[in-house]
Amino acid sequence: MTGSIVFDPLLPWMFIAGLAGLAALGVALALWRGLQGWALRALAALVVLAALAQPSYQIEDRAPLSNIVLIVEDKSASQSLGDRLNDTSNAAVALAAQLNARENTEIRRIEVRDGEGDTGTLLMSAVSDALAEEPRGRIAGIFLLSDGRVHDLERTPDLPAPLHLLLTGKETDWDRRLIVKNAPAFAILGESVTLTLRVDDEGAAPQTGSTVIDISVDGAEPQRFDMPIGQDIELPITLPHGGLNVIQFTVPTAEDELTDRNNTALVQINGVRDRLRVLLVSGEPHAGGRTWRNLLKSDSSVDLVHFTILRPPEKQDGVPVTELSLIAFPTRELFLEKIEDFDLIIFDRYKRRGILPAIYLDNVANYVEEGGAVLIAAGSDFASADSIYRSPLSSIIPAEPTARVIERGYRPGITDLGDRHPVTSGLAGAETWGRWMRQIEVDPIGGDVVMSGIDDKPLLVLDRVGEGRVALIASDHAWLWSRGFEGGGPQLDLLRRLAHWMMKEPELEEEALWAEPTGQTMRIIRRTLDETIGTVTVTRPDGTEEEITLEEVTPGRFEALYTGPEIGLYRLAEGDQEAVVGLGPAAPREFEQTIASGEVLEPVVDGTRGGVRRLEDGLPSIRSVGEGRPAAGRGWLGITPREAFETLDVTQTPMLPGWLVLLLASGLILGAWLREGRRT
């Protein structure tokens, strides 16, 4: 039991202080006037003021509470290296035995495992959560059994007791680490982007000046180069294709290296086209010519060269064909020397007129064979004897004109194949599109018919020729949509999709397999013109395979979600389609730095006057130290007994009962009056 004096004032302390001031003033006045009873008056005032403060003698019946010691065991991924997990478990058991042997001590053992995603070791969050569940006044010490690689130091709480780190790992450990700096998410096709690579040896590493590094793009056969250790190396890379490019860097595992989990780095860069260079050849002025021009110029990423024939050569006025323009148009330069500079050539109602010789058109056909793109918007002249089909371009045009031009209103529609083709799939509202008034009858000789017109005759035909692509629109009335005729239609979306398909953008390939990663999960997507597909074979980083069945979500598009069991490079295959994708970082946060070190936690440990000790040097003994005293020394670590208790019962006895206050105050006041009365 413990006794103490407590106060339970009858009036607020401020009011009691005011009364004390008035009493002191009255006593001072009595003293100034020479009244001999001033001392008795002062004593009477003190008795009254003491009664108002109501002092009591309090006796508490207390039961002592045990001291709580936290043992936090780090069982994250980095602790799986070497014998760290085994050392941690053995040390936790031995430490618990030492603490249990101490009187009035309880132990709380806490295991910390990997969090969701690539969050690393959240050791201080675990400490904070544990302290929130225990009375802080009973915490006598905190022991961390870890490699010291903590990734949430900013979550460190206000610690009420000494914090100690018992460090796993060996002083002889060493590790080689590959680092890729400043890797961009996007890069422009045709322009090099510079990555900074670095290989560092950490810990007790052998003296080695260089190593080799393997570089692989999209899972292809890697190329090997020499790489100095401890130096930043700048590596210029030009992306081979648009869309996602997966670049893998790998450093071979060295002898006695702690782990190879940080010897690989995955960089995923999206290749984007900077500008689309378009050559527009207009055969003659017409209402749709300005629409083509305005449509292409409205896109800031398009560089347009417009070649328009304003005055046909059949007009007999004696002016030579070579002098029909104010300035000489560089046809030779455009169609022979610089044709490879263009991404797309558009022939809008063009027919043979002698302005572009056959050799120029033959060069256009070769341009397509070698990977170029041509879009033909056919007018009435496409069905005539002067049609460009009856030129060297016939070898690349996917449909043959029948010489029939149909002049009547019709509503363009999407074919069954068009519903599956990425150029036209999803163009909703076909039943509300405005009509076109002309269609050139053609017979397909290749390619895919994705739009139809009058009597389901082909209207838009797409084809692959050699390495290039060709699109034929069998009408010159697409401009009616841009004018809003009868409600218009999706001309802008259609022509942009056409241009991107012809530029071989991956998201518009009709036969494609790719994956969209999000953390450890990826959405596998297979686009095809076929009705069905086979299962997708997923090859994991460890070489094991798994078959995934995809479901059709829209016509021609099949999808499935897949969660990878580990971080790394995954290969996908279905039929002749292949893809690679990286899930998570190649080197998880847990394996970025693997050498056990107390450097990160030292400021926190020093702030509580705790200590850092290596388990390979033996488990230190435990001592009791006073609060605020050093809690670490040679071969020992300290805990601070808190002497916490639980109050079972409280008894209060008033020190100035009311009758005693009344008797004392009355007697002192009467004595003062009698003393002063005798003098008079």
Automatic annotation (TrEMBL):
The keyword Transmembrane helix applies. The chain crosses the membrane at residues 12-31, 38-57, 656-674. Keywords: Membrane, Transmembrane, Transmembrane helix. This is Membrane protein. It comes from Marivita geojedonensis. The keyword Transmembrane helix applies. InterPro entries: Class_I_gatase-like. Coiled coil: none annotated.
